[in-house]
C-alpha cells in the first residue's frame, strides 16, 4: 500500500511537473517574443531600414539662424525703448510706455522671456525628441496698465507642433507664474542632401519677434566634428533707434559672475529721495536703501524721479547717479566693473589706487578709466562719454574700435561705432550736477570723498603684510588688505586677501584711540582661510602692528602677531 501510494504520488508529481514545465516554456516563449519586439523597438532609426523612397542617414545641424525683428512705426511719444535680445536658447524683449509728457502721467514697462532646451546637433529620423519650453512675462505701471506677453511654439518645416506656452495678462493684475510645456516630436526620414528646418517661434510683449531656425542637412553618417558649434554663438540684439529710451538694447546685467552675492565693498554714501536696490536674479525684490547700505556683487540700483545717490567704492571711486538712472555692480575690487543700464552718472576716480582700474559698461560701448573724472550717459541706443578731467578710453561694442578722449572732449557710441572726439562745455556740464553733490563740494572737479566734511564718503588705503601664528610654530601667512574709512562715526570696512590660501574675506571694524580693530565677517572668495578672526592694531607712523585671534576669535582658534605697511 505504501509502495503503490508513493508510486501514485510520483506519477501525479511527474504529471504536475510536466504541466508546470509546459506552462514555463510557454511563458518563456512569450517573453522571448516580447523581448524581440521590445529590442526591435529600441533599435535606433539609424539601424532601421528607411521607408521606400528614402535613404538611410541622419540629420546634421549645419546652421542656427536667428531672426530678430520688431515694429519700428510706434508712436515715440507713447511707446519707446522697444528692444529684444537673443542669446543661446533665451529670448527677452520689452518696451517702455507713457501716456504723455507730463511727469504725473502714467508710465511703466512690459517684458517677456522665453527659454527652451537647445536642440541636438544630430537627429535620428523617427526617434522621439522632447523639447521643453518656458514662457514668462511681467511689467510695471504707475496707474494704467498694459499687457505683457510671451508665446512660443515649435515648427517642423513650417508645420506647427503642440503644445505651446503662451502668457498674456494685464500688468494691473498679479503676475502669473511661468508656463512650461514639453513638446514631443520626431524628425522625418529624408534623402541625402535634403534640408530640415526646425523653428523655435517666439513673440514677446506684443509685436516683438525673435525666431530661431535650426537648419539640418540629411547625411549618410554623422561627422566626427559637427559643422555647427553652439560655442560660436554671438548674442543678437535689436533696439528702436528712432526713440529715446530708458533701457539699453540688451541688459548688460548677468548673474553668472564669479563673486555673485558677495559683498562688493561698495557703500551708499549719500541718498536723496527714493533709491531702490535688488539682486539681479530677482526682479520683484526691490527695496529702499539708506546710508551705509551694503551693495553686493550683482545688485542693481535705481533712482526715482527727483532722486539721487552717491556710491563709494573700496578703490576710492565715487559714483553719483542722477534721477531715473540704473546701474549694476558686476565685480568686486580691485578691478571694478559696473554697468550703466540707463540714465546718467558722474564718476570720480582721481584718488584710485595706483594698480586699480575701472570699467563702465554701457549698451554700445565700454569706458576704461583711471585717475580721471567722467560723465556717462545711456539712452539704450546710444552711449555717451564726457571727460571732465584727465582722459578715458572708449571702446565700441559693435566694431571693437577704441579711442581716447581727453579733458573737455566727448564721444558717442551707437550700433554704427564711435564718433570722433568733440568738444563740450565743461562748465555747463558741471553746473548740471550741483544739485546732486554735497554742499561742501565747491566744484565737480574737487576730490570727491576726500573732504572730511562730507559725511560717510570713504577713504581707501591699500596695505600688505603678514600674520605669524604662535601655536603653529611661527607659521607665516602673507596678505593684502584694502582698508576703507574711517567714516564720520569711526567705522571701517574693506577686504583682506590671503594670497597663499586663495581666500578673500570681508572685514568690518572701527577706529580706536591708538589704531584700528576689525573682524573677518564674510567670504568674498572662499579658500583655505577661516572667518571670525579679530585683529587689534596700533598705528605707528604709516604702519600698523598688533595681534590677532584668541580662544573666542578665529574659527580655528589660531592667534599670533600681525604687521602691515601701505603699498
Task: Put the structure in a nutshell.
The chain is mainly beta and 567 residues long. It contains two helices and 39 strands.
Structural notes for this entry:
By secondary structure, the protein is mainly beta. The chain has four domains: 1-42; 60-239, no CATH class; 263-436, Jelly Rolls, CATH 2.60.120; 460-566, Lipocalin, CATH 2.40.128. The chain has two helices and 39 strands. The strands form four sheets. The chain has an 18-stranded mixed sheet that branches. It has an eight-stranded antiparallel β-barrel with strand order 32-33-34-35-36-37-38-39. Strands 1, 5, 7, 8, 9, 11 and 12 form a seven-stranded antiparallel sheet that branches. The longest helix has 41 residues, at 2-42. The chain starts with a helix and ends with a strand. Mean pLDDT is 75; it is low at 1-23, 30-46, 240-253, 351-355, 439-443 and 445-459.
Keywords:
single chain, mainly beta, Jelly Rolls, 8-stranded antiparallel β-barrel, 2 helices, 39 strands, globular
Write the SSE topology.
Blueprint: H1 2-42, E1 58-69, E2 79-87, E3 90-98, E4 107-116, E5 122-123, E6 128-141, E7 149-156, E8 159-160, E9 166-168, E10 179-186, E11 195-204, E12 208-219, E13 236-239, E14 263-272, E15 275-279, E16 287-288, E17 294-296, E18 299-303, E19 308-312, E20 318-321, E21 326-331, E22 335-348, E23 357-361, E24 365-369, E25 373-378, E26 383-389, E27 391-396, E28 402-406, E29 409-414, E30 417-418, E31 422-423, H2 426-431, E32 460-469, E33 476-484, E34 491-498, E35 503-511, E36 515-525, E37 534-540, E38 543-548, E39 560-566
Parallel strand pairs: 22-23
Antiparallel strand pairs: 1-5, 1-12, 2-3, 2-13, 3-4, 4-6, 6-10, 7-8, 7-9, 7-11, 11-12, 14-17, 14-19, 15-16, 15-18, 18-21, 19-20, 20-22, 21-22, 22-25, 23-24, 24-27, 25-26, 26-29, 27-28, 29-30, 29-31, 32-33, 32-39, 33-34, 34-35, 35-36, 36-37, 37-38, 38-39
Amino acid at each position: 500500500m505504501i509502495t503503490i501510494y508513493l508510486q501514485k504520488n510520483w506519477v501525479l508529481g511527474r504529471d504536475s511537473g510536466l504541466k508546470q514545465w509546459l506552462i514555463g516554456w510557454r511563458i518563456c516563449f512569450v517573453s522571448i517574443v516580447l523581448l524581440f519586439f521590445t529590442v526591435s523597438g529600441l533599435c535606433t532609426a539609424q539601424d532601421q531600414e528607411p521607408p521606400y523612397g528614402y535613404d538611410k542617414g541622419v540629420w546634421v545641424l549645419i546652421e542656427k539662424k536667428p531672426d530678430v525683428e520688431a515694429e519700428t512705426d510706434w508712436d515715440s511719444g507713447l511707446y519707446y525703448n522697444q528692444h529684444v535680445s537673443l542669446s543661446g536658447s533665451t529670448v527677452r524683449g520689452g518696451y517702455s510706455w507713457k501716456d504723455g509728457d507730463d511727469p504725473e502721467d502714467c508710465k511703466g514697462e512690459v517684458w517677456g522671456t522665453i527659454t527652451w532646451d537647445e536642440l541636438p546637433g544630430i537627429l535620428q529620423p523617427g526617434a522621439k525628441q522632447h523639447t521643453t519650453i518656458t514662457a514668462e512675462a511681467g511689467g510695471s505701471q504707475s496707474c494704467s496698465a498694459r499687457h505683457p506677453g510671451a508665446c512660443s511654439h515649435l515648427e517642423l518645416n513650417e508645420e506647427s507642433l503642440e503644445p505651446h506656452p503662451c502668457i498674456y495678462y494685464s500688468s494691473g493684475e498679479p503676475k502669473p507664474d511661468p508656463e512650461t510645456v514639453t513638446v514631443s516630436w520626431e524628425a522625418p526620414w529624408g534623402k541625402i542632401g535634403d534640408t530640415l528646418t526646425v523653428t523655435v517661434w517666439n513673440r514677446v510683449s506684443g509685436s516683438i519677434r525673435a525666431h530661431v531656425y535650426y537648419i539640418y542637412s540629411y547625411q549618410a553618417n554623422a561627422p566626427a566634428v559637427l559643422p555647427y558649434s553652439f560655442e560660436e554663438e554671438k548674442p543678437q540684439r535689436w533696439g528702436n533707434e528712432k526713440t529715446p529710451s530708458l533701457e539699453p538694447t540688451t541688459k548688460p546685467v548677468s548673474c553668472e559672475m564669479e563673486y555673485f552675492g558677495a559683498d562688493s565693498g561698495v557703500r551708499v554714501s549719500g541718498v536723496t529721495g527714493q533709491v531702490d536696490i535688488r539682486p539681479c536674479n530677482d526682479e520683484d525684490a526691490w527695496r529702499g536703501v539708506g546710508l551705509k547700505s551694503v551693495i553686493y556683487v550683482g545688485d542693481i540700483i535705481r533712482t526715482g524721479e527727483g532722486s539721487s545717490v552717491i556710491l563709494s567704492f573700496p578703490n576710492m571711486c565715487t559714483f553719483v547717479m542722477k534721477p531715473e538712472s540704473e546701474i549694476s555692480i558686476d565685480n568686486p575690487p580691485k578691478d571694478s566693473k559696473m554697468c550703466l543700464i540707463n540714465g546718467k552718472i558722474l564718476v570720480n576716480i582721481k584718488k584710485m589706487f595706483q594698480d586699480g582700474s575701472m570699467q563702465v559698461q554701457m549698451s554700445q560701448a565700454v569706458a576704461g578709466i583711471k585717475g580721471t573724472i567722467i560723465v556717462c550717459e545711456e539712452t539704450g541706443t546710444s552711449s555717451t562719454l564726457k571727460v571732465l578731467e584727465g582722459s578715458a578710453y572708449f571702446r565700441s561694442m559693435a566694431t571693437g574700435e577704441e579711442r581716447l578722449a581727453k579733458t573737455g572732449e566727448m564721444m558717442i557710441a551707437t550700433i554704427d561705432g564711435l564718433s570722433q572726439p568733440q568738444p563740450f562745455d565743461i562748465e555747463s556740464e558741471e553746473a548740471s550736477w550741483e544739485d546732486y553733490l554735497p554742499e561742501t563740494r565747491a566744484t565737480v572737479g574737487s576730490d570727491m570723498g576726500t573732504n572730511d566734511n562730507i559725511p560717510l564718503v570713504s577713504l581707501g588705503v591699500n596695505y600688505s603684510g603678514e600674520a605669524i601664528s604662535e601655536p603653529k610654530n611661527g607659521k607665516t601667512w602673507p596678505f593684502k588688505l584694502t582698508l576703507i574709512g574711517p567714516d564720520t562715526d569711526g567705522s571701517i570696512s574693506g577686504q583682506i586677501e590671503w594670497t597663499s590660501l586663495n581666500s578673500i574675506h570681508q572685514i568690518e571694524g572701527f577706529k580706536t584711540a591708538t589704531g584700528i580693530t576689525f573682524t573677518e565677517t564674510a567670504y568674498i572668495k572662499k579658500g583655505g582661510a577661516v572667518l571670525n578672526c579679530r585683529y587689534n592694531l596700533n598705528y605707528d607712523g604709516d604702519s600698523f602692528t598688533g595681534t590677532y585671534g584668541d580662544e573666542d576669535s578665529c574659527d580655528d582658534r589660531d592667534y599670533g602677531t600681525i604687521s602691515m605697511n601701505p603699498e
